């Protein structure tokens, strides 16, 4: 099982935990991941980390599709790839949600399925440098010939000789986009994936791989979890689960429109529909403490590695057997070291 370290995006100030990233590299972690919402971006921190690490892969989980044209995203990732020495970059892409797409980026929500398909196709054409890039897509076309165009757009080939094999991973969770991910992408960053829900996705992935003539060996999938090592008592486990509930309430209750929230839909899909409705109702009524209290222990426990070491070790085996090729963790240094031990990495002593 490959391990990744999740850094996420910044709070009010940008402060990268460089020592943790360097520790992850020494422990044998495969990757480190950044994110973006509507503050810090995901690419710039990886350029900094590239200069202070040697081999760990540098991934975005995720860059937001509306934040850059596909050509700009391809340029940024190809530049990062060369600065990092080559073959260390993973371009993780996600659609975000309509509140951010339209409210922050000023872009129409449009048809995300087709926009993803066009976006990835254009990026791969740019990296390949086989010919000046043209693309006649459903959502995105090059050269642009739509409303307001002068009609003089010219197909171009990148000046920079780019790595044609930069992997693209997609952050998706719905049936149509999971199939698309398996078909057009090199890897998958699943939303809310846990061992108990793994069976929901297997047929979708196999269908997508089949469309492209690929096998499971051609496709990576990396879920995410929080790791918290506690004392060996039920009270300590409940307290740790409680520490993770505010973030669940935020995403299920308030990260998206009432009628379009992918995190809430994921919670429903995992069998916690009543709780999801209640959390959103309370959160949107600004009763955030009650929304947090409404998050079920079982839901949090399924998605986290929490408890004494033997409990975490047993649960880690479920993750190893559930169909993903890697696991991205969040946690302190003790959690990082113990996860490396569970994954049987070359643990630094």
Explained architecture:
An eight-stranded parallel beta barrel has the order 1-2-3-5-8-9-10-12, surrounded by six helices. The chain starts with a strand and ends in a 7-residue tail after the last helix. 44% of the residues are buried. The chain folds into two domains: 260 residues, Luciferase-like domain (TIM Barrel); 77 residues, no CATH class. The mean pLDDT is 96. Helices cover 43% and strands 15% of the residues. The protein has 14 helices and twelve strands. Strand 6 and strand 7 form a beta hairpin. It is of the alpha/beta class and 349 residues long. The radius of gyration is 20 Å and the shape is globular.
Descriptive tags:
alpha/beta, 14 helices, 8-stranded parallel barrel, two-stranded antiparallel sheet, 349 residues, 2 domains, 15% strand, TIM Barrel
How would you classify the helix and strand content by structural class? alpha/beta
Write down how many β-strands occur, each being a DSSP E stretch of 2 or more residues.
Answer: 12
In the sheet with the most strands, the strands line up as 1-2-3-5-8-9-10-12
CATH superfamily of the largest domain: Luciferase-like domain
Overall 3D shape: globular
The biggest sheet amounts to:
8 strands, parallel, barrel
The CATH architecture of the largest domain can be given as Alpha-Beta Barrel
Residue runs with pLDDT of under 50 for 5 or more positions: none
**In which range does the helix fraction lie?**
40-55%
- Supply Rg: 20 Å
Distance between the termini: 20 Å
Q: What is the CATH fold-level name of the largest domain?
A: TIM Barrel
Beta-strand content estimate: 5-15%
Number of helices: 14
Q: Tell me the series of helices and strands, N- to C-terminal.
A: EHEHEEHEHHEEEHEHEHHHHHEHEH
């Amino acid at each position: 099982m490959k391990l990744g370290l999740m850094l996420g995006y910044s709070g009010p100030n940008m402060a990268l935990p460089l020592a943790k990233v360097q520790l992850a590299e020494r422990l044998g972690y495969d990757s480190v991941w950044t994110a973006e919402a509507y503050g810090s971006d995901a690419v710039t921190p990886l350029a900094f980390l590239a200069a202070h690490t040697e081999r760990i892969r540098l991934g975005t989980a995720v860059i937001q599709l509306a934040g850059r044209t596909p050509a700009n995203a391809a340029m940024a990732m190809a530049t990062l790839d060369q600065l990092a020495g080559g073959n260390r970059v993973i371009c993780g892409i996600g659609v975000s949600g309509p509140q951010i797409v339209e409210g922050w980026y000023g872009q129409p929500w449009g048809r995300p399925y087709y926009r993803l398909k066009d976006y990835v196709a254009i990026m791969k054409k740019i990296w390949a440098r086989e010919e000046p890039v043209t693309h006649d897509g459903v959502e995105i076309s090059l050269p642009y010939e739509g409303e307001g165009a002068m009609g003089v757009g010219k197909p171009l080939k990148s000046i920079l000789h780019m790595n044609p094999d930069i992997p693209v991973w997609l952050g998706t969770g719905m049936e149509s986009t999971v199939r698309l991910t398996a078909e057009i992408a090199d890897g998958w960053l699943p939303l809310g994936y846990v061992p108990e829900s793994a069976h929901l996705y297997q047929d979708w992935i196999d269908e997508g791989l089949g469309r492209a003539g690929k096998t499971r060996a051609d496709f990576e999938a990396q879920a995410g979890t929080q790791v918290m090592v506690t004392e060996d008592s039920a009270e300590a486990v409940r307290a740790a689960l409680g520490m993770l509930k505010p973030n669940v309430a935020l995403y299920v209750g308030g990260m998206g429109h009432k009628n379009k929230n992918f995190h809430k839909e994921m919670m429903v899909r995992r069998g916690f529909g009543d709780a999801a409705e209640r959390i959103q109702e309370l959160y949107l009524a600004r009763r955030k403490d009650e929304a947090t209290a409404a998050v079920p222990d079982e839901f949090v426990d399924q998605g986290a590695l929490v408890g004494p070491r033997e409990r975490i070790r047993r649960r880690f085996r479920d993750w190893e057997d559930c169909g993903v090729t890697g696991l991205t963790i969040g946690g302190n240094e003790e959690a990082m070291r113990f996860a490396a031990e569970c994954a049987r990495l070359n643990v630094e002593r």
